[in-house]
Structures are given as structure tokens and as C-alpha cells.
Amino acid sequence: MKLDKFDREILRVLQKDATVSMAELSQRVGLSHTPCWRRVKKLESDGIIRRKVTLLDNKRLNLGVNVFIYVTLKNHDEESLNSFEASVQDIPEVVECHTTSGEKDYLLKVVVESIEEYELLLKSKLTHLPSVDHLSSTFALKQVKNTTELPIKQC
């Protein structure tokens, strides 16, 4: 789908605040209410806007430990990959899972309350994931940037 300047501006505004009213959104992007509403509905039906969410503050929820884990698998056949990926879905502390290029197969992001909780998760679940050969954990010391906004270019 080709996006014009209005579509891009709608996306920029909604990324910052998905609770903005349609009246305010249309005013900010320079469209009347109905054309703006139609564009939002089209962006949703085309899958560009996947969903609207509420972002939580992990530190205020006592979930201040972020761990990045590189995973290397023993086997790389389709069944092993699918089994690993399905199993990761069942671990709520794993908030992201990416396949990667290079020596490592996956990169996981885990969010937990403490290092002790991570150690328990590691021993009880992560090392038991299907086909895992090696896990390499790195603890984030400080989050320098945190954005959910994609870099939408101007037309």
C-alpha cells in the first residue's frame, strides 16, 4: 500500500497517542472527520495498524530487570525450529523473540523482577526449551532509549 502524507501523519500521531479522538486526529493531520476516519479504517483493514495498546511502566510494576539472551540450537530442521518457537510462546517473561543471522539462532528479551527470578526461569524453563544447545545472557544495565514509534518518513 502506498501511503501519502496524510496517512503518514495519521500514523505518526496515533503512535504517540492511540487514545486521541477522531476529531482531534483529523484536526492535527488537516483533514475533515469523515475522510480521516476512512483512512484510519483503511490502515486498520490493510494491517498497517495492527492494534491499539496501553504501554506499562515496567519499573513501577517491579519488573526492572531486562535480559537479552542469544540462543543457539542443536538442530536446525523445520520441526526443531517450529518446536522451539512454539515453546517460547508459553513463557510470559519472554516478551520478544527474534530469529537472527550469524552464529546465533535467536535473540530473546526477558523481563523479570530480579536476577534471582531470572536464574530460576533459566534453570526451570529456558534451558529445557526444545533443541537448545547454548544460551548466552546479557543483563541491561540502563535503558538509554525506549520507543515504540516506528520511523515513518515524510513524503
TrEMBL record:
Protein name from the UniProt record: AsnC family transcriptional regulator
Cellular component, GO annotation: cytosol
InterPro entries (alphabetical): ArsR-like_HTH, AsnC-type_HTH_dom, Dimeric_a/b-barrel, Tscrpt_reg_AsnC-like, Tscrpt_reg_AsnC/Lrp_C, Tscrpt_reg_HTH_AsnC-type_CS, WH-like_DNA-bd_sf, WH_DNA-bd_sf
The keyword Transcription regulation appears for this protein: yes
SUPFAM superfamilies: Dimeric alpha+beta barrel, Winged helix' DNA-binding domain
One Gene Ontology term of the molecular function aspect: sequence-specific DNA binding
Native species: Lacimicrobium alkaliphilum
Biological process (GO), any one: response to amino acid
SMART domains associated with the record: HTH_ASNC
Source organism, top-level taxon: Bacteria
Record-annotated HTH asnC-type domain positions: 3-64
Alphabetically ordered keywords of this record: DNA-binding, Transcription, Transcription regulation
